[in-house]
Amino acid sequence: MERQNDQMTSKEDVFTDEEKIIIHSAIIQSSALAIVNSEGNIQRANHAFHSMFNPASTGDDLWHIDNIIDEYAAQDFFNLVRDVISMEHCWSGQIRLRNTLHQSFHAFLHISKAPEKGLYVVQVNPVDHVNEYERLRLMAYTDELTGIPNFRCFHERMKQLLEGRDAALHFGVLFIDIDHFKALNDRYGHVVGDKLLKACVYKLMKNIYPDGEVFRKSGDEFLIIVQQPAQIEGLIERLYAAFMQQVYVDGEGIPMQVSIGASLYPIDGQDTESLIHTADAAMYQAKRQKEMPSP
Which intervals hold domain GGDEF (predicted)? Predict the structure, then answer.
């Protein structure tokens, strides 16, 4: 595997005292654990981690964290997550992983800052190892296809913002719809359609963090919460520019564009439904303008 680190070891006592405190106080003992640096290189890992990802190895041949990701954004995964952690302090989600034998499995992945500056704690629990309450909780707030927060999670996040907001403060909501997605689905099939949705999420994540949080509403619709309204205009321009580039699925370039609408709290509404409705209407207006013939 690429980017191996010769200094890594599988012994349980490789963690510092501070690392052991955060690990044992925050997670279950059966978790596969690793410490990675700011570049995503795995520095230390426990026996469970080695057994999970290096089942045929007895040495210290670990690798970069991206190499355990069996997903559409594997090569940029840690960079994206690191940006999220800088804003949210941790990242959690259900994702498909792989080991050195290229065996894939679904797991709950949790990454947070370690006490030592520049290091991160990675916790992996295969789906069948997670306790029932935690499994149901994560499933309830995670979109099964893309692994990002779902519409239910969006409502919870909005509730937190609205209940904690001072009337003088503002935030924005973006409503994003993939143009002609049904036609793309019909042309390429549902398997490719699912991959296109994942590619869309990748583009969104790559271009909004750390300025916004992305959620899947349903189908080909997504919502983004932007806590700094001054960032909205530039963020929309950045997203439109990103979707001018083709999306590659299985080596084939596929044109994929989006329409975006925005609403601002409290100007366009003071509750979740009003803000969604206004952003949705603005999105359809943007879609109609693109479809109007040029004079």
Answer: 169-295
Strands (E), 159-288: 171-178, 212-218, 221-226, 247-249, 252-254, 258-265
The helix (H) or strand (E) run that includes residue 109 is: strand 104-113
**pTM exceeds 0.70, yes or no:** no
Q: What whole-number distance in Å separates Cα of residue 294 and Cα of residue 277? A: 28
Q: Which of 95, 110, 118, 112 shows the shortest CA–CA distance to 41?
A: 118
Q: Taking a C-beta distance cutoff of 8 angstroms, is the pair 124, 97 a contact? A: yes
Task: State the Cα–Cα distance between residues 112 and 121, nearest whole angstrom.
Answer: 5
The domains of the chain, with CATH numbers, are 12-135 (3.30.450.20), 151-291 (3.30.70.270)
Position 51 pLDDT exceeds 60: yes
Strands 252-254 and 119-126: unpaired
> Among all residues, which ones are annotated catalytic?
220
